[in-house]
Design goal:
Length: about 375
């Protein structure tokens, strides 16, 4: 009987590993949905100019919103002390203040929820032995990045409480990019745990897919600068911008590099150029993948990625021509995450699944 049990043991171990991988993957996909929602609510908070409505950082106590008229009035009085109220929203009623307060409160509450949704299951999977050893540093790194993101969020808000009427576009762009980096990291781990129907793609395909992910992150950072400067509210024509393919006045500030970060016209123009570059890269990658690995899932994913980039470009055009309407702006931000997530999944799938830990141990 003992020999039969020993013979069945490797199969049972592999079955348990597959089951645990499924559990961890489903958990990570659930966290991805929450992060996606968090970024969308963050975008809505920016579009409604709600981000400075809560002037204090209370990681624990801040979960509880104001209760009663006295507490609401206290929050409004704090808001009245900052430049945004004094220069833009002077005379705002309590009812109007509550609208912007709830957007920011929801954003912060959802951020806390994402933290708990990641940390508590991570502890459970770790303590019950459901995590493979190579996953532990990856997931701890994501957890640490999430904690850093919370601090970056307050660092961003603090930039608009003293000398400015809004937050720094530099800090907003960093905050958005780190959120997307967390999203990408979770997607990469989850996709690496999924079953793969094909072997790894050629190195050239994998390498280009990796560079494409970086290009998407750079474009998202540029989009953060556009949002931080409200640059999308001007020059609402396409394909011409300010009446020309290459508008004048792109480098009026000195030193010249400052225009890339602080001149709304230049920032929007560079973001447009980034979109054209991404479209060209996606087209090249799709063509090269179909040529190198025809009739494979790798080629089909490259074509799907191209389609997503085309949709995102069209959404971006509608958004800028419409002078950044609320709904289309959120769709544009959401599509950026969809493109990023698919690009990361494509890159991870092109590299192949994580090798089963049981196989690694056996080989070792």
């Amino acid at each position: 009987m003992s020999s039969i049990a020993q013979a069945a043991s490797p199969f049972d171990t592999r079955a348990a590993e597959a089951r645990h991988r499924l559990q961890v993957r489903l958990w990570l996909y659930g966290v991805l949905v929450l992060v996606f929602a968090l970024v969308i609510v963050g975008g809505a908070t920016r579009l409604t100019d709600s981000g400075l409505s809560i002037t204090e950082w209370k990681p624990i106590h801040g979960v509880i919103p104001p209760i009663g008229e006295a507490q609401w009035q206290e929050e409004l009085d704090k808001y009245r002390q900052i430049p945004e109220y004094q220069q833009i929203n002077k005379g705002m009623s309590l009812a109007e203040f509550k609208v912007i307060f709830w957007w920011e409160w929801a954003h912060r509450l959802l951020a806390r929820g994402v933290g708990f949704a990641f940390a508590l299951p991570l502890a459970f999977f770790w303590l019950t032995g459901r995590l493979e050893s190579h996953l532990k540093p990856k997931l701890l790194g994501i957890l640490a990045l999430g904690g850093l993101q919370g601090a970056i969020g307050w660092w961003m808000v603090a930039s608009g409480l003293v000398d400015r009427v809004d937050v720094s576009q530099y800090r907003l762009a960093v905050h958005l990019t780190i959120a997307c980096l967390i999203f990408a990291a979770i997607m990469a781990v989850a996709r690496g745990l999924a079953p793969h129907t094909a072997g790894p793609a050629p190195m050239a395909v994998r390498r280009f897919a990796g560079w494409f992910v970086i290009a998407v992150l750079v474009q998202i950072y540029l989009g953060g600068l556009v949002a931080g400067l409200d640059a999308g509210l001007a020059y609402n024509t396409w394909p011409l911008m300010d009446g020309a393919l290459v508008p004048g006045g792109l480098f009026v500030q000195q030193p010249a590099w400052l225009n890339l970060f602080e001149n709304p016209k230049t920032v929007q123009f560079v973001h447009r150029l980034g979109a054209y570059l991404l479209l060209a890269l996606a087209l090249w990658h799709a063509w090269a993948s179909v040529r190198r690995v025809p009739d494979t899932t790798h080629a089909r994913r490259a074509l799907a990625l191209l389609a997503l980039v085309v949709v995102q470009a069209l959404v971006g055009i509608v958004t800028v021509v419409g002078a950044v309407p609320f709904g289309w702006a959120l769709v544009h931000q959401g599509m950026a995450l969809v493109v990023l997530g698919f690009a990361v999944a494509h890159r991870r799938a092109a590299a192949g699944a994580y090798p089963p830990e049981t196989a690694v141990r056996t080989a070792g």
